[in-house]
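Appendix C reproduces, verbatim, an entry submitted by the partner laboratory led by Prof. M.T., so that reviewers can inspect both the input and the predicted structure.
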Amino acid sequence: METWKLNLYICCAASFIVSIGMSQMAPILPLYIAELGISDPGDIARWSGIVFGCNFISLAIFSPIWGRLSDRFGRKPMILRASAWLGLIMIGMGLAQSVTHLVILRLLQGALSGFQAAAIPLIAQETPKNRSGWAMGIFFTAQVSGGLMGPLAGGWLSEFIGYRHTFFLMGTCCLLGFLALTRLKETVKPNPRAAALGLRLTFQRLPHKQAVIGLFLTTLFLHFSLTCVQPILTVYVKTLVPDSEHLALISGAVFSSTGFASMLFASRLGRLADRIGSHQILFACLTLAGFVAIPQGMVTAPWQLGLLRFIHGVAIAGLMPSTNNLIRQLTPPLCLGRIYGFNQSAQFIGMFSGSILGGHIAAEIGIANMFFIVAALLLVNAAWCRLVIWR
């Protein structure tokens, strides 16, 4: 097997495991916090938000740092460090004795992780340019698949082996992923001069600085538009079927439809991007996501919302791989890791701000109107893409 394909498949397998480990705690976190001694429902909700969200803050701060170090010391050492650290953190969460321990561990997880910030540049630099869109699509499929499996695996395992042992098992799986990643072969040698460049000099050396910064904003707006809606989807579904006895099941189906669509179409859109250009896929998917968000605020039944969220997921499937591929094409190799690190920071800032602000905005203007704001953000972004990226 060709080296770049071997690297891709190993990174995809590890990313699948890492995504399961990162997302498996979502359904069991409030229950685990209650087991640690927090009994008031309001306090459980507050602590759940703090524990879940603090990880995004430290990830946003430290991703560019780890990206810079990957430029200096190589992508493989950073990937190995991040995967091993995640496994140890998961095991540590199973040993936590208080909710404060969970907060500290989640902050450390974000500060010392950075798996994606090193894995994406490795795939980008090792893959032939005419196959990079497909490779990014395959990697994104692995991420989404793990994200979909994680909550299901976490809920199922906790029923049989308990919350603590679920963390132990997930941590062990991450360490097994670390062993698989030792087989990576990095053929492009690191450039120590890259880490010596300051932030200002790094951006001065970008031949398409405006476009790269715009791609950062695209990543931020994309993840803001996703996470500002996700926490309130169940509430929205309840307004559509107020008397249903299967609210959790219906909401879960609507919620998962986006991820399943992304999983099915990411590699296909990546292959298409290799043929017609990632800039065209980016513009088309931003436009589709913007227009399909509008009717989501006007649905009258859950199946309509689920269908529209599925179409939205098809658009999402083309956005992240195209963004990563365009960054690869517009960025000099010597600072690729750092630029991908900044893009990761934009992603986590969008996720954190969306999860925090989405509920407050929806409470002020109504849940249905939230979809119109999402549509406006995405369509303005599409117009910018058409003017700047195409040029």
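The mean pLDDT is 83. Additional entries are available on request from the coordinating office.
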